[in-house]
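Check these lines:
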Amino acid sequence: QVAFPATQVASGDANTLDDYEEGTFTPSIGDSGLDGSGEGQAYSKQVGRYTKIGNRVFFSLRVAISNLGTMTAGDHTAVMGLPFTSNSATDSHSAVHVGLATSMALGTAGYSVAGRVPTNAAYIALVLWDSTTSLTGLLISEVSVGADLVISGHYEV
């Protein structure tokens, strides 16, 4: 058994593991206003779990939306509520795995949803693989009532 203090005691030695934490968070869907509840959204599932080891956060989440509220249809979709803000270093984006994305209004078979944690952010920017050469931001209009997302990944803080 390894026990860490309740409050981190940061070490100047890069080879010393000085931080470990487990916990939960509440994921939500937001538009470019990055507000997961302020526009009347409602959810049937909102579960998030994380483990933080040093400067790395590992997470898994499930969020299912039962009311889109008044989010702006043409805005890009984000999953809000990650437990820590990501690293602010240039180009420190982290890809995530979208294992399930059901009841979406994608319009064309064969498209798939992916995502990333941007630099200096506590959210996941969702994207759509809708071409062989690039991807586009997933629009709120492509998220239907009943949409259910299961996402896992890790990012640096």
